[in-house]
Design a protein that fits this description.
The complex is a heterodimer of chains A (198) and B (380). Chain A is of the alpha+beta class. Chain A has seven helices and eight strands. In chain A, a hairpin with a 2-residue loop joins β1 and β2. The radius of gyration of chain A is 17 Å and the shape is globular. The longest helix of chain B is centred in the N-terminal third of the chain and has 17 residues. The chains are: A alpha+beta (198), B alpha/beta (380).
């Protein structure tokens, strides 16, 4: 396997904390997902009210991508995201709205979020990324899949950089780990290194 | 760099349980769409194409399963078993499994489902498919809205090129469910008649269901008569809107350009375009703009949605398999339902099934989230 690429920066969002390259940039004692997102938005995003129309998965992915991309100049950045629950968190909400004839209120605004890749659409819109997208669903974090796919996109010059990682929301639990793969950077883009940072 | 081929394939659809049954019907311009009355799915009649339940059960039982599988798993198992049998390949560490689906076993969320909610997790479905056939590798599941099926082909090629696998089996499938129909109905996008992509009189989309499967391989000796080489691909975002397609067709254009550039061809070298064509106003219009910008306005083009409806995460793979057979039979299949152009930019829609020497085709798809994928194939 070739190993010409590096991890430029990375971030975590979990347990009420947002960190970039291991350094905390936001922390709250809140445990409710929506309140955590609201507080993190006020500190880190500030001026993107569309954030509040997003579903939980998109909020989480958007926030994690925001802290890595806010000062990024490169626009040809592939998005290669993954999780376990797909969009099940919103699927349950949607299914609830159609479960019986007496309470049948299917909403297009909810239905559209019943796809995991919508999260990448939201990131693409904000950062004007007309770039490669792919969403993988795996039972656990799978660095081999992500790194192989990223290497191919960079090797074939389809992307200059790749924003990769894990963004999962399920039954109130949430976890995001995103990293930018580039031709220069701090950490070697290897499975071992990705696992260490995860 | 060695070539990557598409080879043994299967289509489980309302037409039957192999690719040929679907190809024969399409060749004869016969639709698989009809009106269904099923109040569990929608309280009004809807136009769809569905896999026959009784025959599916017979094909499934013939595989001697030792546990009960969900309806979607049955469709996928039946489809993949046919491709595996025809390929006759020993499954090793060098054999990958890619599963393409937008909603998987979403019907287990319904109150009456006999399956636990945990079956709605896509990895649970993946594990059932992997275990049934004994794949050594965990499946790679792609869930990327309506481009999933053709993106799965691009991904298989990319994994093979990086040396992760020599062979990859892709199986794609999605169901007609209450979940999906109610959603498209809420968007007021459903047509109660068979859909008419690109036609002035189009009235919206139909949702259908299929499972399809294919072998992707780097070994020329594992190919079949209808095999094609995967020449180039791209999968770019519109960066415009999460549910509405771009008005400029930007993401689709960029995907097509990336595929063309990698293929080493010119746009004018493409003999046929198998487009997305859902028969919604916005999608068809967006495609006409993107194809115009890509210099493909004169290239013979069809949408196969008039035969199956939109089969979601399976559609891109389904329509690629039909494209393979179209090339092999040197026949352009009619874009069923089309009469008069109803988009702003010119398109060369195939009105009647026509014999023609064709070597190269472009498959495209577009979906929610601003997703688009384009892949170029050539006769092997």
């Amino acid at each position: 396997m070739k190993n010409n690429f590096y991890i430029q920066n990375y971030c975590h969002v979990k347990d009420g904390e947002v960190s970039v390259n291991g350094k905390t940039v936001f922390k709250t004692s809140e445990t409710d997902f929506k309140l955590v997102m609201k507080a993190a938005y006020k500190k880190l995003i500030v001026d993107y009210p569309k954030f509040f129309k997003m579903d939980n998965l998109s909020k989480l992915g958007f926030l994690a991508a925001h802290v890595l991309l806010e000062n990024e100049k490169e626009k040809n950045i592939a998005l290669i995201l993954s999780n376990k629950a797909s969009s099940l968190d919103t699927d349950r909400t949607y299914q609830e709205s159609i479960k019986n004839a007496e309470q049948y209120y299917p909403s297009p605004a909810v239905f559209v979020y019943t796809l995991p890749n919508i999260c990448m659409g939201e990131i693409s819109i904000k950062h004007k990324l007309y770039s490669e997208n792919c969403f993988f669903v795996t039972d656990e974090f799978a660095p081999e899949t992500l790194s192989t796919y990223a290497n191919e996109l960079l090797d074939s010059n389809k992307a200059e950089k790749a924003l990769c990682g894990w963004v999962d929301v399920d039954n109130g639990k949430y976890n995001a780990f995103l990293y930018v793969v580039a031709k220069k950077g701090t950490f070697v883009h290897s499975e071992a290194e990705i696992n260490r940072l995860y | 760099m060695s070539k990557v081929y598409l080879s043994h394939n299967n289509i489980v659809s309302s037409f039957g349980f192999d690719s040929i049954s679907a190809i024969e019907s399409i060749r004869n311009q016969v639709t698989g769409l009809s009106i269904y009355e099923d109040k569990k799915i929608l309280d009004t009649p809807f136009c769809s194409s569905r896999v026959h339940q009784k025959e599916l059960q017979e094909h499934y039982k013939a595989l001697s399963p030792n546990e009960e599988h969900t309806r979607l798993e049955k469709m996928m198992l039946v489809s993949l078993s046919d491709s595996l049998k025809k390929a006759g390949i020993k499954l090793t560490k060098r054999t990958g499994l890619i599963i393409s689906t937008t909603k998987g076993n979403i019907d287990v969320l319904e109150n009456e489902s006999p399956y636990p909610e945990s079956r709605a997790y896509l990895p649970a479905l993946g594990e059932k498919i992997q275990q049934f056939f004994g794949f050594e590798n965990k499946p790679i599941i792609i869930s990327n809205a309506c481009v999933s099926g053709v993106l799965a082909i691009a991904a298989a090629k990319r994994f093979i090129k990086q040396g992760l696998y020599d062979d990859v089996f892709i199986v794609a499938g999605d169901l007609v469910t209450q979940f999906i129909l109610s959603g498209f109905n809420a968007f007021q996008a459903l047509s109660t008649d068979p859909c008419r992509p690109y036609c002035k009189t189009r009235t919206g989309i139909n949702i259908g269901e299929v499972a399809s499967s294919v072998l992707v391989t780097n070994n020329a000796s594992k190919t079949t008569d209808e095999s094609v080489i995967v020449l180039g691909e791209g999968s770019c975002n519109d960066a415009n809107h999460i549910s509405g397609p771009s008005r400029t067709g930007e993401g689709l254009l960029r995907s097509v350009e990336a595929a063309i550039q990698q293929s080493g061809l010119q746009a004018t070298d493409i003999d046929y375009v198998s487009a997305h064509g859902t028969a919604t106003m916005y999608n068809d219009e967006m495609e006409s703009i993107a194809f115009g910008r890509a210099n493909l306005s004169n290239t013979p083009l069809n949408s196969l949605k008039g035969y199956f409806g939109h089969t979601l995460g399976a559609s891109g793979l389904l329509e690629t398999i039909i494209g393979m057979h179209s090339l092999h039979q040197n026949t352009l299949f009619a874009s069923l339902g089309f009469k008069e152009l109803g988009v702003s930019q010119p398109l060369n829609i195939i009105k009647e099934t026509t014999p023609k020497n064709i070597n190269t085709f472009l498959k495209t798809a577009s979906g929610f989230g601003g997703s688009n994928t384009a892949v170029i194939f050539q006769k092997a």
